[in-house]
């Protein structure tokens, strides 16, 4: 029996530790199974090159749990190791067997691990580790290696009938959670769900009827519990897949999601980097944060992370699906990934592919695209706000939908409204609503003028309209309740006022007395007699700043934190205003004013609590 000390090569080990040091204890399972899968893949490569006579028809990895013995074992029937290879690849930590194999057979082999520290992650949870291995090479003898986590090891010949390697972890006292079946099953589902070689973990039992009629009996069937799908949809050629295959794969990825995706993008590129994957467009809800962290990042079918923010453009994190690239290092450090040159190229490529796919869908079936618009618009708005290259493409298919449900691109829409909605300063004014029901009276007033109103009701609308104003010069967006209808789109013509300056001075304190203090500013405007006597408006600029602040990035000079402020616009030409002015009895004048201003407040859902209760009582008295 040989004994010795593990040779840690300082000049090699520190760069590897610096780049690949694991921060998550459970990663040991991914690393050990990756090594086992590598061992089978190496054997398959050698067989394809005629360099081994070993049978590769039934390659498999098996995970075995023995709670009584406190062991967790990872077995494979792959390439195995000789005593010399154990000494070389295990005892000399920094020299990676996978790395050497890749160099020798590059362009022929698909190998997961490139770093010699993977095996040693076992000591994060084990007090002692054994390796029992038999090489595929003819005449090889099985060997057993053992180490308790110190630099000391033993290496001796042993008995092993089948080719391959068993890694036996003697679980440490502080890691007994890894002796629970449900815990191992959970980690296998997380990290190994799509590894390219069949992985077995225990067995499943089911009953099956055998025979017919009265002779039928139920028999117990014991089956291997295969935890993974070695050939997931993203590894296949798109031409070989049907729409139902993509839907099934989506359900496989997200078994607890019941909505079907709207459409998908199948990624497949081999230059200047290798990348495969499938991205799905889910039906996006209003809360953007709920949609994130649903893209799973893989490297050669080995799970890396689903926290891809900073790795792909932020707006793409709202998509679901899988990205797989051997050019993405198998490491959980996001800061490392974010600075990796290949990752940056991949990020730009995916963004471009998504934009191309959306434009293709728009051009090929605009009616279907319009039907799905409400479910994807928040994603497209997010992309246009955060990625200038995406913005340039998206201007061709991003839609504005009016209150009648008619959708047009920005250029189409501007062309439509230009004749009627151009103001005296030659700016085209796009009127929009954030809520068709709450702002119904304002929308109605706009339509009476022949104006069109678009619906902008996403959480990003305040930011998005600002971006569109930057992109489309001589265009401005104004919410339909930001001012009276004649001031929303200012024209040259003016309506004379029936009130003199003295009349306005007399009326102003009466109206101010009927309103809550500090929140409302009384403004007199000369409008049509048919317009409302009192109208509540809120400055487009101030309201937009507050809306932008609510979703981040709009607290310009602290304006996002200012209290709500409104204008109470008085129509100086409405008969009711003249009636209030000419009322000689002071109490009656106050009651008329209070009732009329309360109606204006009520129309905007601004009349609440005690004030609302008093309004109801007063209204009943007036009816009686």
Description:
The protein is α+β, with helices and mostly antiparallel strands. The chain has 4 domains: 2-202, Heat Shock Protein 90, CATH 3.30.565.10; 233-371, Ribosomal Protein S5, domain 2 (2-Layer Sandwich); 398-492, Rossmann fold, CATH 3.40.50.11260; 494-624, Up-down Bundle (Four Helix Bundle (Hemerythrin (Met), subunit A)), CATH 1.20.120.790. Helices cover 37% and strands 21% of the residues. Strands 1-6-5-4-7-3-2-8-9 form a 9-stranded mixed β-sheet, with helices on one face. A 5-stranded mixed β-sheet has the order 10-11-14-12-13, sandwiched between helices. Strands 18-17-19 form a 3-stranded parallel β-sheet. Helix 8 (341-364) runs antiparallel to helix 9 (366-386). The chain is elongated.
Short characterization:
The protein has 624 residues and is an alpha+beta fold. Helices cover 37% and strands 21% of the residues.
Which stretches are poorly predicted, pLDDT < 50 over at least 5 residues?
Answer: 10-22, 111-116
CATH topology of the largest domain: Heat Shock Protein 90
Total DSSP E strands: 22
Number of helices: 19
């Amino acid at each position: 029996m040989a004994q010795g000390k593990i040779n840690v090569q300082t000049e090699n080990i520190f760069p590897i530790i610096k780049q690949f040091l694991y921060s998550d204890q459970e990663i040991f399972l991914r690393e050990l199974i990756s090594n086992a899968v590598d061992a089978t893949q190496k054997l398959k490569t050698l067989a394809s090159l005629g360099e081994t006579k070993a049978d590769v028809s039934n390659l498999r990895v098996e995970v075995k749990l023995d709670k009584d013995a406190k062991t967790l074992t990872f077995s494979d029937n792959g390439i195995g190791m000789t005593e010399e290879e154990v000494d070389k690849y295990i005892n000399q930590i920094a020299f990676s067997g996978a790395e050497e194999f890749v160099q020798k057979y590059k362009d022929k082999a698909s190998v997961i691990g490139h770093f010699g520290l993977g095996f040693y992650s076992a000591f994060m949870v084990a007090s002692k580790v054994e390796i029992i291995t038999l090489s595929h090479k003819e005449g090889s003898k099985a060997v057993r290696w053992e180490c308790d986590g110190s630099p000391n090891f033993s290496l001796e010949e042993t008995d092993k009938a089948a080719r391959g390697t068993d890694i036996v972890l003697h679980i440490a006292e502080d890691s007994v959670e890894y002796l629970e079946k449900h815990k191992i099953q959970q980690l296998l589902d997380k990290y190994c769900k799509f590894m390219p070689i069949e992985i077995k973990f225990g067995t499943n039992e089911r009953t099956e009827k055998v025979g017919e009629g009265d002779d039928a009996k139920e028999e117990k069937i014991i089956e291997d519990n295969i935890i993974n799908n070695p050939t997931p949809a993203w590894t296949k050629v798109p031409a070989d897949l049907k729409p139902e295959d993509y839907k099934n794969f989506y359900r496989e990825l997200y078994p607890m999601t019941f909505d079907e995706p709207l459409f998908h993008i199948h990624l497949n590129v081999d230059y200047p980097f290798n990348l495969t994957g499938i991205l799905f467009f889910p039906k996006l809800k209003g809360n953007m944060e709920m949609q994130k962290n649903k893209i799973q990042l893989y490297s050669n079918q080995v799970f890396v992370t689903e926290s891809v923010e900073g790795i792909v453009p932020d707006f793409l994190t709202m998509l679901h699906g899988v990205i797989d690239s051997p050019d993405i290092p198998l490491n959980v450090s996001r800061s490392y990934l974010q600075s990796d040159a290949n990752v940056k190229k991949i990020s730009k490529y995916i963004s471009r592919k998504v934009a191309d796919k959306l434009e293709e869908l728009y051009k090929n079936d605009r009616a279907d695209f319009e039907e799905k618009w409400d479910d994807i618009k928040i994603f497209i708005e997010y992309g246009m706000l955060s990625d200038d290259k995406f913005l340039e493409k998206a201007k061709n298919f991003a839609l504005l939908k009016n209150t009648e449900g008619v959708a047009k691109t920005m250029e189409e829409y501007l062309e439509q409204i230009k004749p009627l909605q151009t103001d005296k300063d030659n700016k085209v004014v796009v009127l929009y609503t954030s809520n068709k029901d709450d702002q119904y009276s304002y929308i109605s007033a706009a339509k009476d003028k022949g104006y069109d109103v678009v619906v902008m009701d996403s959480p990003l609308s305040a930011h998005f309209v600002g971006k569109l104003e930057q992109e489309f010069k001589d265009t401005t967006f104004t919410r339909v309740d930001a001012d009276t209808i004649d001031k929303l789109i200012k024209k040259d013509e003016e309506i004379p006022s029936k009130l003199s300056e003295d009349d306005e001075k007399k009326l102003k304190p009466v109206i101010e007395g009927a309103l809550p203090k500090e929140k409302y500013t009384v403004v007199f405007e000369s409008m049509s007699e048919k317009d409302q006597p009192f109208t509540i408006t809120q400055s487009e600029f101030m309201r937009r700043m507050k809306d932008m602040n609510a979703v981040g990035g709009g607290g310009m000079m602290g304006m996002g934190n200012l209290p709500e402020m409104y204008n109470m616009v008085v129509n100086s030409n409405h008969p009711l205003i003249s009636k209030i002015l000419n009322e000689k009895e002071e109490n009656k004048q106050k009651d008329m004013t209070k009732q009329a201003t309360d109606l204006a407040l009520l129309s905007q859902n601004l009349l609440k609590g005690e004030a609302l209760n008093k309004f109801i009582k007063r209204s009943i008295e007036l009816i009686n």
